[in-house]
From TrEMBL, chain A:
<feature type="domain" description="Lipid/polyisoprenoid-binding YceI-like">
    <location>
        <begin position="21"/>
        <end position="185"/>
    </location>
</feature>
<dbReference type="Pfam" id="PF04264">
    <property type="entry name" value="YceI"/>
</dbReference>
<dbReference type="InterPro" id="IPR036761">
    <property type="entry name" value="TTHA0802/YceI-like_sf"/>
</dbReference>
<protein>
    <submittedName>
        <fullName>YceI family protein</fullName>
    </submittedName>
</protein>
<dbReference type="InterPro" id="IPR007372">
    <property type="entry name" value="Lipid/polyisoprenoid-bd_YceI"/>
</dbReference>
UniProtKB/TrEMBL annotation, chain B:
<feature type="domain" description="DUF5777">
    <location>
        <begin position="38"/>
        <end position="272"/>
    </location>
</feature>
<protein>
    <recommendedName>
        <fullName>DUF5777 domain-containing protein</fullName>
    </recommendedName>
</protein>
<dbReference type="Pfam" id="PF19089">
    <property type="entry name" value="DUF5777"/>
</dbReference>
<dbReference type="InterPro" id="IPR045916">
    <property type="entry name" value="DUF5777"/>
</dbReference>
Length: 196, 275
Protein backbone atom coordinates (compact mmCIF):
# COMPACT_ATOMS: atom_id res chain seq x y z
CA UNK A 1 0.00 0.00 0.00
CA UNK A 2 2.80 2.40 0.90
CA UNK A 3 4.43 1.84 -2.47
CA UNK A 4 1.24 2.87 -4.25
CA UNK A 5 1.33 6.16 -2.35
CA UNK A 6 5.00 6.62 -3.27
CA UNK A 7 4.26 5.97 -6.91
CA UNK A 8 1.43 8.46 -6.86
CA UNK A 9 3.65 11.06 -5.25
CA UNK A 10 6.35 10.39 -7.84
CA UNK A 11 3.86 10.81 -10.63
CA UNK A 12 2.58 14.08 -9.16
CA UNK A 13 6.11 15.43 -8.87
CA UNK A 14 6.83 14.55 -12.47
CA UNK A 15 3.52 15.70 -13.83
CA UNK A 16 3.82 19.13 -12.25
CA UNK A 17 6.86 20.16 -14.33
CA UNK A 18 5.76 19.85 -17.93
CA UNK A 19 7.42 22.13 -20.42
CA UNK A 20 6.49 23.72 -23.69
CA UNK A 21 8.81 24.47 -26.55
CA UNK A 22 7.84 26.36 -29.66
CA UNK A 23 9.92 26.81 -32.80
CA UNK A 24 9.62 29.59 -35.34
CA UNK A 25 7.56 28.44 -38.26
CA UNK A 26 9.00 28.62 -41.75
CA UNK A 27 6.23 30.83 -43.02
CA UNK A 28 6.46 33.57 -45.57
CA UNK A 29 4.09 35.58 -43.41
CA UNK A 30 6.78 36.00 -40.77
CA UNK A 31 8.01 39.53 -40.80
CA UNK A 32 11.09 41.27 -39.51
CA UNK A 33 11.24 44.86 -40.58
CA UNK A 34 13.54 47.71 -39.78
CA UNK A 35 12.45 51.22 -40.55
CA UNK A 36 14.80 54.11 -41.16
CA UNK A 37 12.84 57.31 -40.83
CA UNK A 38 15.40 59.87 -41.91
CA UNK A 39 14.16 63.39 -42.73
CA UNK A 40 14.63 63.09 -46.49
CA UNK A 41 13.97 59.48 -47.22
CA UNK A 42 12.24 56.74 -45.32
CA UNK A 43 12.93 53.18 -46.26
CA UNK A 44 12.38 49.75 -44.87
CA UNK A 45 14.35 46.54 -44.83
CA UNK A 46 12.25 43.41 -44.73
CA UNK A 47 12.85 39.69 -44.33
CA UNK A 48 10.93 36.60 -43.33
CA UNK A 49 14.09 34.70 -42.40
CA UNK A 50 13.75 34.49 -38.64
CA UNK A 51 14.40 31.35 -36.64
CA UNK A 52 14.60 30.36 -32.99
CA UNK A 53 12.56 29.07 -30.11
CA UNK A 54 10.44 29.98 -27.12
CA UNK A 55 10.53 27.70 -24.09
CA UNK A 56 8.81 27.72 -20.75
CA UNK A 57 7.55 25.35 -18.12
CA UNK A 58 4.30 25.13 -16.30
CA UNK A 59 1.31 27.35 -16.82
CA UNK A 60 3.07 30.67 -16.77
CA UNK A 61 5.15 31.97 -19.67
CA UNK A 62 7.64 33.39 -17.21
CA UNK A 63 8.40 30.10 -15.54
CA UNK A 64 11.88 28.93 -16.54
CA UNK A 65 11.37 30.99 -19.63
CA UNK A 66 14.04 30.81 -22.31
CA UNK A 67 13.90 32.30 -25.77
CA UNK A 68 16.25 32.79 -28.66
CA UNK A 69 15.55 34.35 -32.02
CA UNK A 70 17.93 35.07 -34.88
CA UNK A 71 17.53 36.90 -38.15
CA UNK A 72 19.59 36.25 -41.27
CA UNK A 73 20.72 39.77 -42.18
CA UNK A 74 21.83 38.68 -45.65
CA UNK A 75 18.17 38.33 -46.56
CA UNK A 76 17.13 41.87 -45.65
CA UNK A 77 15.61 43.50 -48.69
CA UNK A 78 15.23 47.27 -48.91
CA UNK A 79 13.70 47.18 -52.37
CA UNK A 80 16.85 48.33 -54.17
CA UNK A 81 19.61 45.84 -54.87
CA UNK A 82 22.42 48.34 -54.62
CA UNK A 83 21.13 49.61 -51.31
CA UNK A 84 20.94 46.03 -50.04
CA UNK A 85 24.54 45.59 -51.00
CA UNK A 86 25.58 48.78 -49.26
CA UNK A 87 23.71 47.77 -46.17
CA UNK A 88 25.27 44.32 -46.09
CA UNK A 89 28.82 45.32 -46.97
CA UNK A 90 29.21 48.78 -45.49
CA UNK A 91 27.05 48.87 -42.39
CA UNK A 92 26.06 45.43 -41.16
CA UNK A 93 29.17 43.65 -42.49
CA UNK A 94 27.18 40.49 -42.89
CA UNK A 95 30.14 38.48 -44.10
CA UNK A 96 31.52 38.77 -40.55
CA UNK A 97 28.24 39.09 -38.69
CA UNK A 98 25.51 37.32 -40.66
CA UNK A 99 22.98 37.14 -37.82
CA UNK A 100 21.21 39.50 -35.49
CA UNK A 101 20.00 37.60 -32.46
CA UNK A 102 18.22 38.03 -29.17
CA UNK A 103 18.59 35.60 -26.28
CA UNK A 104 16.70 36.13 -23.08
CA UNK A 105 13.58 35.30 -21.18
CA UNK A 106 10.10 36.50 -20.49
CA UNK A 107 10.23 38.36 -17.21
CA UNK A 108 6.65 39.60 -17.08
CA UNK A 109 3.44 38.26 -18.52
CA UNK A 110 -0.10 39.44 -18.05
CA UNK A 111 -3.30 38.40 -19.71
CA UNK A 112 -4.49 41.04 -22.14
CA UNK A 113 -7.48 39.20 -23.54
CA UNK A 114 -8.64 35.77 -24.44
CA UNK A 115 -5.52 33.82 -25.46
CA UNK A 116 -3.53 37.04 -25.57
CA UNK A 117 -0.66 37.94 -23.29
CA UNK A 118 1.25 41.13 -22.90
CA UNK A 119 4.84 40.22 -22.11
CA UNK A 120 8.10 41.86 -21.25
CA UNK A 121 11.31 40.16 -22.37
CA UNK A 122 14.80 40.83 -21.18
CA UNK A 123 18.03 39.57 -22.62
CA UNK A 124 20.99 40.18 -24.91
CA UNK A 125 20.66 41.63 -28.35
CA UNK A 126 23.58 40.82 -30.65
CA UNK A 127 24.09 42.87 -33.77
CA UNK A 128 27.29 43.53 -35.69
CA UNK A 129 29.30 41.57 -33.14
CA UNK A 130 28.16 43.74 -30.22
CA UNK A 131 26.12 42.34 -27.32
CA UNK A 132 23.83 44.67 -25.39
CA UNK A 133 21.37 44.01 -22.62
CA UNK A 134 17.91 45.21 -23.43
CA UNK A 135 14.27 44.68 -22.67
CA UNK A 136 11.22 45.02 -24.86
CA UNK A 137 7.49 44.61 -24.71
CA UNK A 138 5.52 42.31 -26.92
CA UNK A 139 2.23 40.58 -27.50
CA UNK A 140 1.78 36.82 -27.67
CA UNK A 141 -1.45 35.46 -29.10
CA UNK A 142 -2.28 31.77 -28.81
CA UNK A 143 -4.21 30.06 -31.53
CA UNK A 144 -4.13 26.31 -31.01
CA UNK A 145 -0.53 25.16 -31.29
CA UNK A 146 0.53 28.40 -32.95
CA UNK A 147 1.63 31.49 -31.09
CA UNK A 148 1.85 34.82 -32.86
CA UNK A 149 4.55 37.10 -31.48
CA UNK A 150 4.55 40.82 -32.12
CA UNK A 151 6.94 43.43 -30.86
CA UNK A 152 8.58 46.66 -31.87
CA UNK A 153 11.43 48.59 -30.35
CA UNK A 154 14.16 51.04 -31.30
CA UNK A 155 17.81 50.26 -31.86
CA UNK A 156 20.53 52.89 -31.98
CA UNK A 157 23.08 52.04 -34.63
CA UNK A 158 25.92 53.64 -32.68
CA UNK A 159 25.27 51.22 -29.81
CA UNK A 160 26.30 48.43 -32.14
CA UNK A 161 29.27 50.19 -33.72
CA UNK A 162 27.48 50.62 -37.02
CA UNK A 163 28.85 53.70 -38.70
CA UNK A 164 27.14 55.63 -41.43
CA UNK A 165 29.36 57.39 -43.98
CA UNK A 166 28.84 61.12 -44.04
CA UNK A 167 28.10 61.29 -47.79
CA UNK A 168 24.97 59.27 -48.36
CA UNK A 169 22.13 59.88 -50.70
CA UNK A 170 20.14 57.26 -48.88
CA UNK A 171 19.90 59.00 -45.55
CA UNK A 172 19.91 56.53 -42.73
CA UNK A 173 18.48 57.39 -39.37
CA UNK A 174 20.68 56.81 -36.35
CA UNK A 175 17.74 55.13 -34.66
CA UNK A 176 16.16 52.20 -36.42
CA UNK A 177 12.76 50.91 -35.47
CA UNK A 178 12.53 47.12 -35.50
CA UNK A 179 9.16 45.55 -36.04
CA UNK A 180 8.67 41.84 -35.46
CA UNK A 181 5.58 39.84 -36.33
CA UNK A 182 6.10 36.12 -36.60
CA UNK A 183 4.78 32.75 -35.51
CA UNK A 184 6.10 29.94 -33.39
CA UNK A 185 4.59 26.49 -33.27
CA UNK A 186 4.48 24.17 -30.31
CA UNK A 187 6.50 21.10 -30.90
CA UNK A 188 5.67 17.75 -29.32
CA UNK A 189 4.92 18.36 -25.67
CA UNK A 190 7.87 17.47 -23.52
CA UNK A 191 7.30 15.77 -20.19
CA UNK A 192 9.64 14.13 -17.82
CA UNK A 193 8.64 10.84 -19.35
CA UNK A 194 9.77 12.14 -22.74
CA UNK A 195 13.00 13.33 -21.27
CA UNK A 196 13.80 9.85 -20.21
CA UNK B 1 13.53 6.27 6.80
CA UNK B 2 12.94 4.52 3.50
CA UNK B 3 10.05 6.87 2.85
CA UNK B 4 12.16 10.00 3.34
CA UNK B 5 14.94 8.68 1.12
CA UNK B 6 12.43 7.80 -1.60
CA UNK B 7 10.84 11.25 -1.51
CA UNK B 8 14.23 12.99 -1.61
CA UNK B 9 15.41 10.87 -4.52
CA UNK B 10 12.15 11.59 -6.34
CA UNK B 11 12.51 15.32 -5.75
CA UNK B 12 16.10 15.44 -6.95
CA UNK B 13 15.25 13.33 -9.98
CA UNK B 14 12.27 15.47 -10.77
CA UNK B 15 14.17 18.77 -10.42
CA UNK B 16 17.03 17.51 -12.54
CA UNK B 17 14.73 16.48 -15.33
CA UNK B 18 12.81 19.71 -15.19
CA UNK B 19 15.81 21.80 -16.26
CA UNK B 20 15.31 23.39 -19.67
CA UNK B 21 16.42 21.08 -22.39
CA UNK B 22 15.74 22.99 -25.56
CA UNK B 23 15.59 20.84 -28.64
CA UNK B 24 15.82 23.63 -31.19
CA UNK B 25 18.86 23.35 -33.45
CA UNK B 26 20.37 25.93 -35.73
CA UNK B 27 19.54 25.23 -39.34
CA UNK B 28 22.26 25.34 -41.92
CA UNK B 29 20.74 27.03 -44.90
CA UNK B 30 22.82 27.28 -48.03
CA UNK B 31 21.54 30.12 -50.12
CA UNK B 32 22.78 30.74 -53.62
CA UNK B 33 24.66 34.00 -53.42
CA UNK B 34 24.95 36.28 -56.40
CA UNK B 35 28.55 37.17 -57.06
CA UNK B 36 28.86 40.93 -57.08
CA UNK B 37 32.39 41.70 -58.17
CA UNK B 38 32.13 45.21 -59.53
CA UNK B 39 29.78 47.69 -57.93
CA UNK B 40 28.61 49.45 -61.05
CA UNK B 41 27.13 48.12 -64.28
CA UNK B 42 29.85 49.80 -66.32
CA UNK B 43 33.31 51.17 -65.62
CA UNK B 44 33.29 54.22 -67.88
CA UNK B 45 32.45 53.12 -71.38
CA UNK B 46 32.94 49.40 -71.04
CA UNK B 47 30.39 47.18 -69.32
CA UNK B 48 30.94 45.08 -66.24
CA UNK B 49 29.01 41.86 -65.74
CA UNK B 50 26.84 43.45 -63.07
CA UNK B 51 23.11 43.65 -63.60
CA UNK B 52 20.69 45.41 -61.29
CA UNK B 53 17.93 43.55 -59.52
CA UNK B 54 14.88 42.46 -61.45
CA UNK B 55 12.44 45.33 -61.81
CA UNK B 56 14.97 48.08 -61.23
CA UNK B 57 15.66 50.98 -63.56
CA UNK B 58 18.91 52.84 -64.06
CA UNK B 59 19.07 56.37 -65.34
CA UNK B 60 22.33 57.59 -66.81
CA UNK B 61 23.63 60.98 -67.86
CA UNK B 62 27.12 61.32 -69.28
CA UNK B 63 29.23 64.13 -70.67
CA UNK B 64 32.49 64.34 -72.61
CA UNK B 65 33.83 67.87 -72.84
CA UNK B 66 35.39 68.08 -76.29
CA UNK B 67 38.22 70.60 -75.70
CA UNK B 68 41.20 68.95 -74.05
CA UNK B 69 42.11 70.12 -70.57
CA UNK B 70 45.12 72.04 -71.92
CA UNK B 71 43.04 74.02 -74.42
CA UNK B 72 43.24 77.76 -73.87
CA UNK B 73 40.37 79.73 -72.37
CA UNK B 74 38.08 76.77 -71.90
CA UNK B 75 38.54 76.20 -68.15
CA UNK B 76 39.92 72.70 -68.53
CA UNK B 77 37.53 72.11 -71.39
CA UNK B 78 34.47 72.68 -69.26
CA UNK B 79 33.33 75.59 -71.47
CA UNK B 80 32.52 72.96 -74.04
CA UNK B 81 31.14 72.05 -76.43
CA UNK B 82 30.36 68.58 -75.15
CA UNK B 83 28.91 65.31 -76.26
CA UNK B 84 26.27 64.05 -73.93
CA UNK B 85 24.29 60.88 -73.48
CA UNK B 86 21.05 60.08 -71.72
CA UNK B 87 20.02 56.50 -71.14
CA UNK B 88 17.50 54.44 -69.26
CA UNK B 89 18.04 50.80 -68.40
CA UNK B 90 15.63 48.23 -67.06
CA UNK B 91 15.95 44.68 -65.75
CA UNK B 92 12.87 42.73 -66.91
CA UNK B 93 14.14 39.34 -65.73
CA UNK B 94 16.92 38.32 -63.41
CA UNK B 95 20.39 38.90 -64.90
CA UNK B 96 19.10 40.53 -68.08
CA UNK B 97 19.31 44.29 -68.59
CA UNK B 98 17.93 46.27 -71.50
CA UNK B 99 19.15 49.82 -72.04
CA UNK B 100 18.08 52.52 -74.44
CA UNK B 101 20.31 55.56 -74.84
CA UNK B 102 20.88 58.54 -77.02
CA UNK B 103 23.99 60.56 -77.69
CA UNK B 104 24.04 63.92 -79.45
CA UNK B 105 27.05 62.73 -81.44
CA UNK B 106 25.34 62.14 -84.78
CA UNK B 107 22.13 61.74 -82.82
CA UNK B 108 23.01 58.14 -82.14
CA UNK B 109 20.25 55.97 -80.66
CA UNK B 110 21.44 52.82 -78.99
CA UNK B 111 19.49 49.78 -77.84
CA UNK B 112 21.39 47.05 -76.09
CA UNK B 113 20.86 43.98 -73.99
CA UNK B 114 23.17 42.40 -71.42
CA UNK B 115 22.93 38.94 -69.98
CA UNK B 116 25.00 37.73 -67.05
CA UNK B 117 25.33 34.03 -67.67
CA UNK B 118 28.15 32.73 -65.49
CA UNK B 119 29.17 33.01 -61.85
CA UNK B 120 32.07 31.01 -60.49
CA UNK B 121 32.40 31.55 -56.76
CA UNK B 122 36.05 30.70 -56.33
CA UNK B 123 37.50 32.14 -53.11
CA UNK B 124 40.72 33.34 -54.76
CA UNK B 125 39.69 34.18 -58.29
CA UNK B 126 35.92 34.55 -58.53
CA UNK B 127 34.72 34.88 -62.08
CA UNK B 128 31.63 36.25 -63.72
CA UNK B 129 30.79 36.45 -67.39
CA UNK B 130 28.20 38.27 -69.44
CA UNK B 131 27.41 38.96 -73.05
CA UNK B 132 26.16 42.23 -74.41
CA UNK B 133 24.73 42.93 -77.83
CA UNK B 134 23.34 46.09 -79.26
CA UNK B 135 22.22 48.02 -82.29
CA UNK B 136 22.77 51.71 -82.94
CA UNK B 137 21.12 54.12 -85.32
CA UNK B 138 22.88 57.32 -86.34
CA UNK B 139 20.04 59.62 -87.31
CA UNK B 140 21.96 62.74 -88.22
CA UNK B 141 24.46 61.77 -90.89
CA UNK B 142 25.59 64.37 -93.38
CA UNK B 143 24.24 63.99 -96.93
CA UNK B 144 22.35 60.82 -96.18
CA UNK B 145 18.78 59.83 -95.50
CA UNK B 146 18.08 59.02 -91.88
CA UNK B 147 16.80 55.58 -92.80
CA UNK B 148 19.82 54.65 -94.90
CA UNK B 149 21.01 51.15 -93.86
CA UNK B 150 24.56 52.51 -93.66
CA UNK B 151 23.48 54.49 -90.61
CA UNK B 152 22.98 51.36 -88.57
CA UNK B 153 25.68 49.65 -86.53
CA UNK B 154 25.68 46.40 -84.58
CA UNK B 155 27.98 45.10 -81.92
CA UNK B 156 28.55 42.18 -79.60
CA UNK B 157 30.71 41.93 -76.48
CA UNK B 158 31.87 39.27 -74.10
CA UNK B 159 32.50 40.56 -70.59
CA UNK B 160 34.75 38.73 -68.14
CA UNK B 161 35.23 40.00 -64.58
CA UNK B 162 37.18 38.97 -61.55
CA UNK B 163 37.90 40.57 -58.19
CA UNK B 164 41.20 39.95 -56.44
CA UNK B 165 41.72 40.50 -52.70
CA UNK B 166 38.18 41.93 -52.60
CA UNK B 167 39.69 45.22 -53.75
CA UNK B 168 40.99 44.92 -57.27
CA UNK B 169 38.44 44.40 -60.00
CA UNK B 170 39.73 43.32 -63.38
CA UNK B 171 37.78 43.04 -66.60
CA UNK B 172 38.27 41.98 -70.19
CA UNK B 173 35.81 42.90 -72.91
CA UNK B 174 36.53 41.51 -76.39
CA UNK B 175 34.16 43.32 -78.73
CA UNK B 176 33.07 43.14 -82.34
CA UNK B 177 31.55 46.13 -84.10
CA UNK B 178 29.87 45.86 -87.50
CA UNK B 179 29.86 48.94 -89.74
CA UNK B 180 32.33 50.77 -87.55
CA UNK B 181 32.90 53.53 -90.14
CA UNK B 182 29.49 54.67 -91.28
CA UNK B 183 30.91 57.01 -93.94
CA UNK B 184 32.98 54.35 -95.65
CA UNK B 185 31.46 52.87 -98.83
CA UNK B 186 32.72 49.43 -98.01
CA UNK B 187 31.35 48.12 -94.72
CA UNK B 188 33.99 48.16 -92.05
CA UNK B 189 34.29 46.16 -88.90
CA UNK B 190 36.35 46.51 -85.74
CA UNK B 191 37.51 43.85 -83.35
CA UNK B 192 38.71 45.39 -80.12
CA UNK B 193 39.96 44.22 -76.77
CA UNK B 194 38.63 46.28 -73.93
CA UNK B 195 40.22 46.01 -70.51
CA UNK B 196 39.93 47.75 -67.19
CA UNK B 197 40.98 47.64 -63.58
CA UNK B 198 39.19 49.25 -60.68
CA UNK B 199 40.69 49.52 -57.24
CA UNK B 200 38.20 49.91 -54.40
CA UNK B 201 39.87 52.14 -51.84
CA UNK B 202 36.85 52.20 -49.54
CA UNK B 203 33.18 51.29 -49.75
CA UNK B 204 32.58 54.61 -51.49
CA UNK B 205 35.72 55.52 -53.39
CA UNK B 206 37.58 53.73 -56.15
CA UNK B 207 40.13 54.39 -58.85
CA UNK B 208 39.63 53.16 -62.37
CA UNK B 209 41.61 52.73 -65.56
CA UNK B 210 40.06 51.61 -68.82
CA UNK B 211 41.50 50.87 -72.26
CA UNK B 212 40.04 49.77 -75.54
CA UNK B 213 42.57 48.61 -78.12
CA UNK B 214 41.70 47.78 -81.69
CA UNK B 215 43.01 44.35 -82.58
CA UNK B 216 41.86 44.27 -86.19
CA UNK B 217 39.63 46.16 -88.57
CA UNK B 218 38.96 49.85 -88.78
CA UNK B 219 39.95 52.22 -86.06
CA UNK B 220 39.45 55.89 -85.55
CA UNK B 221 42.77 57.64 -85.02
CA UNK B 222 43.81 56.12 -81.71
CA UNK B 223 43.06 53.48 -79.12
CA UNK B 224 40.98 54.71 -76.20
CA UNK B 225 42.28 55.25 -72.69
CA UNK B 226 40.49 56.56 -69.64
CA UNK B 227 41.39 56.99 -65.99
CA UNK B 228 39.52 58.51 -63.13
CA UNK B 229 37.66 58.08 -59.87
CA UNK B 230 34.32 56.68 -58.87
CA UNK B 231 32.20 57.83 -55.95
CA UNK B 232 29.42 55.51 -54.91
CA UNK B 233 26.66 56.79 -52.69
CA UNK B 234 23.81 54.39 -52.18
CA UNK B 235 22.00 54.23 -55.50
CA UNK B 236 24.25 56.75 -57.27
CA UNK B 237 27.56 56.42 -59.04
CA UNK B 238 29.59 59.48 -59.93
CA UNK B 239 32.54 58.92 -62.23
CA UNK B 240 34.88 61.73 -63.11
CA UNK B 241 37.75 60.99 -65.44
CA UNK B 242 40.17 62.02 -68.13
CA UNK B 243 39.86 60.35 -71.51
CA UNK B 244 41.13 60.69 -75.04
CA UNK B 245 37.81 59.46 -76.48
CA UNK B 246 34.84 61.69 -77.15
CA UNK B 247 32.29 59.07 -78.09
CA UNK B 248 29.75 57.87 -75.58
CA UNK B 249 27.45 55.36 -77.17
CA UNK B 250 29.05 51.92 -77.56
CA UNK B 251 28.98 51.76 -81.35
CA UNK B 252 30.89 55.03 -81.53
CA UNK B 253 33.23 54.34 -78.64
CA UNK B 254 34.33 50.96 -80.00
CA UNK B 255 35.50 52.65 -83.20
CA UNK B 256 38.37 54.42 -81.42
CA UNK B 257 39.49 57.73 -79.96
CA UNK B 258 40.30 61.08 -81.50
CA UNK B 259 43.01 62.55 -79.23
CA UNK B 260 46.65 61.59 -78.97
CA UNK B 261 48.53 62.48 -75.82
CA UNK B 262 45.78 64.86 -74.85
CA UNK B 263 42.99 64.41 -72.36
CA UNK B 264 39.52 65.72 -71.93
CA UNK B 265 37.28 65.73 -68.89
CA UNK B 266 34.20 63.59 -68.71
CA UNK B 267 31.70 62.34 -66.21
CA UNK B 268 29.03 59.68 -65.87
CA UNK B 269 26.26 59.76 -63.31
CA UNK B 270 23.90 56.86 -62.80
CA UNK B 271 21.00 56.50 -60.43
CA UNK B 272 19.03 53.38 -59.58
CA UNK B 273 15.28 53.90 -59.67
CA UNK B 274 12.43 51.76 -58.45
CA UNK B 275 8.74 52.44 -58.83
Amino acid sequence: MHYKIYLLLFAVLLGGTFSEECHVTAEKTNLVKFISDAPIEEFEGVTDQIDGYLYWEGDRLTEKSDLYFEVDLNTLDTGIGLRNRHMRENYLETEKYPLASFKGKIIKSEKAGENTFKVMVQGTMSIHGVDRLMSAEGIIQKNGDIYRIQSHFDVKLSHYNIEIPSIMFYKIDETMRLVLDFHVKKIEEKTEANNR
Amino acid sequence: MKTIVFILVSLIFSLTLSQAQVRWKKKKVERPVDLLLFHSTQVVNLPTTEVLNKGEFQFEISHRFLPPIDAKKTLLGLDGPAYMRLALGYVPVKNVAVTFGRSNNQDNYDLRIKYKFLQWANATVPLTAAVRAGAAWNTEVTDRETSDPKNFQYYGQLVLNTLLFKKLGIGLVPSYLYNSHIYCDKTQYSFTMGSYVQFYISPMWSLLVEANNTISGWRNQYDSYTFGIELETGGHFFKIFLTNAAALNPSQFLAGADLKNQWRLGFNITRVLTF
